[in-house]
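User: Design a sequence. Structure:
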């Protein structure tokens, strides 16, 4: 059972949790190990429940998904968190990503895509949907800088690394970036690893945020 992905569900709607449970438990390589109806309950239970990936709703009573995600990331063995937003684009999603979430998806994501996202996050990647990234950051365009805000660590990036960072921020996958620059996927992974090391960031999602916050990429109208 060591290779089974342990999933924890957090949503204030019991029917939603039941649906996710049926979906996750139908897979041979994953199972639901716990549930919570709000962020506070989730933080309490996850401290005593070993899990790998958390599916976290954003809007919940008592403690919302943003703060719950932030608190979970302070745990010694923090699980990966996938934030689930409403179709209308939840205003808390961007804050949740900055709080440490490994990705975000719309609640109406097809089941196969959700299962794939769980596997991707568990393997160390991050889930950044191009369409969701675009809509999310357009929503926050007014809060983004009007001019590029250079960070010292960006100055350490090579020209190619900057190009790769821009495409990561735009939501392209490693395969798409490799095709764009005529590189191997292994080379793209190497570039991303070096970018993470030089910027001191945790994962791909943090690079998306960095790209927009520094003005390397801007939301399109």
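Assistant: Done.
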């Amino acid at each position: 059972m060591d290779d089974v992905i342990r999933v924890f569900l957090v949503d204030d709607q019991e029917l939603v949790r039941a649906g996710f449970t049926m979906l996750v438990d139908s897979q041979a390589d994953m199972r639901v190990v716990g549930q919570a109806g709000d962020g506070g309950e989730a933080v309490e239970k996850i401290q005593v429940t070993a899990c790998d990936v958390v599916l976290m709703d954003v809007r919940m009573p008592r403690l919302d998904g943003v703060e719950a995600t932030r608190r979970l990331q302070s745990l010694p063995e923090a699980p990966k968190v996938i934030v689930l937003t409403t179709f209308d684009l939840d205003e808390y999603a961007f804050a949740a990503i900055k709080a440490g979430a490994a990705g975000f998806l719309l609640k109406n994501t097809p089941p196969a895509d959700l299962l794939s996202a769980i596997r991707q996050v568990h393997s160390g990647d991050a889930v950044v949907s191009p369409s969701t990234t675009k809509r999310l950051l357009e929503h926050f365009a007014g809060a983004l800088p009007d001019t590029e805000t250079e960070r010292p660590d960006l100055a350490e990036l090579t020209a190619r690394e900057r190009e790769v960072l821009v495409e990561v921020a735009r939501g392209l996958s490693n395969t798409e970036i490799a095709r764009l620059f005529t590189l191997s996927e292994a080379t793209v992974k190497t570039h991303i690893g070096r970018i993470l090391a030089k910027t001191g960031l945790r994962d791909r999602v943090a690079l998306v945020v960095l790209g927009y916050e520094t003005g390397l990429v801007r939301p399109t109208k």
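The longest strand covers residues 30-36. The domain at 5-138 is CATH 3.40.50.2300 (Rossmann fold).
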